[in-house]
Amino acid sequence: MSILYDEKNRLNVDISTSIEDNIKLLETLFKDCGDIVQKSFFIEKFNSRIRLHLIYIDGLVDNNMIEQTIIKPVMYEWQTENLYNDMTFWDRIYYIEAQTVDIKEEKSTDKTIEAILNGDTAMFVDGYAKAFVISSKKYPLRSITENDTEAGMRGPKDSFNESIRQSTALIRRRIKDAKLKVVQGTIGERSRTSYAIMYMEDLADAGLVDEIKKRLYRYDIDALFDSGMAEHLMDESPMSPFPIFQTTTRPDKAAAGIVEGRVVIAFDNSPEVLMAPCNFNMLLQASDDYYNRWMVGTFARLIRYIAAFIAITLPGFYIAVTVYHSDMLPTRLLYAIANARSIVTFPVVVEMLIMEFLFELLREAGIRLPGPLGNTIGVVGGLIVGQAAVEAGIVSTIVVIVVALTAIASFAIPNEEFASVFRLLKFFIMLTSAVAGLYGFILGLLIIAIHLSELKSFGVPYMMPVNGSKSEEQEDIALNNQDFIVRPPITRMKKRPVWAKKENRVRLRDNYSRED
Length: 516
Prior knowledge:
Layout: H1 19-29, E1 36-45, E2 48-57, H2 63-80, H3 89-97, E3 103-106, H4 109-117, E4 121-125, E5 131-134, H5 164-174, E6 180-187, E7 193-200, H6 206-216, H7 227-234, E8 246-248, H8 251-258, E9 263-267, E10 273-276, H9 288-291, H10 294-324, H11 331-340, H12 348-368, H13 371-391, H14 397-411, H15 416-454, E11 456-457, E12 460-461, H16 474-480
Antiparallel strand pairs: 1-2, 2-4, 3-5, 4-5, 6-7, 7-9, 8-10, 9-10, 11-12
Helix pairs in contact: 5-8, 10-14, 10-15, 12-13, 12-14
């Protein structure tokens, strides 16, 4: 039996009234698929036999649910119940016999097959040109576990997992408002990965939601397995190392973004959701900032800004000063550096590159190995290899200290994707510093600053609130600077950011200041 597909790998046939034709089509489509379960049933009614055909994928469905809500009611209650004899048998199945709420009729073969592949059960009835699609999903999933990628001392400990339905449910649990919209769809011609766009209807800008939908379907792709792939498809600045989406595995952070007027995009099979718009400041914020006292949160945030600066500049600054501007150093420090380098055979630039490469190698090895072994190789490898390299005269102790401080600073950045950018750009600053000393060091920082000032995330300047405030209204300028390096008390954060709808920016009101 030949099967017709369109250019997007979609079936071009509708469900037939002949159940034999439908079964032949299913057998052709799912040939050599050992996990497909198909079963035909016959029902006696008025001396005639009505044939039903069920199909589902073993391992993706709740078998007990199928038996209790579909097979048992249809097969046994049909024989004894004689009410509503004036109804057609397919109407009776839909309205009376099927003991489940989540059942629908589908006339498209392609959508029926897609539902089966998503874990639903399809039932075909002889003489009826539609299929009954029953929701029976029961995916093999991880349980909701404690967040280990964005850990914090305070706040909820749960995290997203690979189920898109559990991800949306965790956000629904926190935002009990009918204005929270969940727009669902699929992407990927072969994977048909489910996604959900979540936003507050009265807070999120309609143009932002439309732009995200437009970018999702800008390209046709065979398969999409993670939110990271979707992020690359929607990125309008693919040559920039900086992410224009904020990724998170924390439901509380995603919910907080939604009530600020941002849009969250969740994907099936991915434990991370995307949040837009995004800027530099957001990627250095953590949930703990808002759960702790404002002075504690401000201090922690200030530490992160300093850490981000150290992570990108310290190796390059050390190269620039020791190679080109050693006269800037105090005499005792200069003697200490010279003494530490007295047995080193390589130039400063080479030994710095050797040590940085060694650290990145240990980090990558620690990620790929199982948990206990990864921790062991990170600690033992850093101590033993670093000490051996110093004793062998390959690197100096000062370089080991610089690389260690740089690594610690990069670990202080709460967003791993953002921290990876700093680890990459430090090599760029090292290169410019090695070529032109402090002039190259400053030039490299200027190039990065200019790039950041031009970068945007869905129309929002990336360096807001440092730049990008084009509004002439004093209120908008104040909103831009409301939650920056200083995290003000919650009682002072009375308005949402500028990307939220202007008429609904007030999020906190003082009840005692109102007139009765």
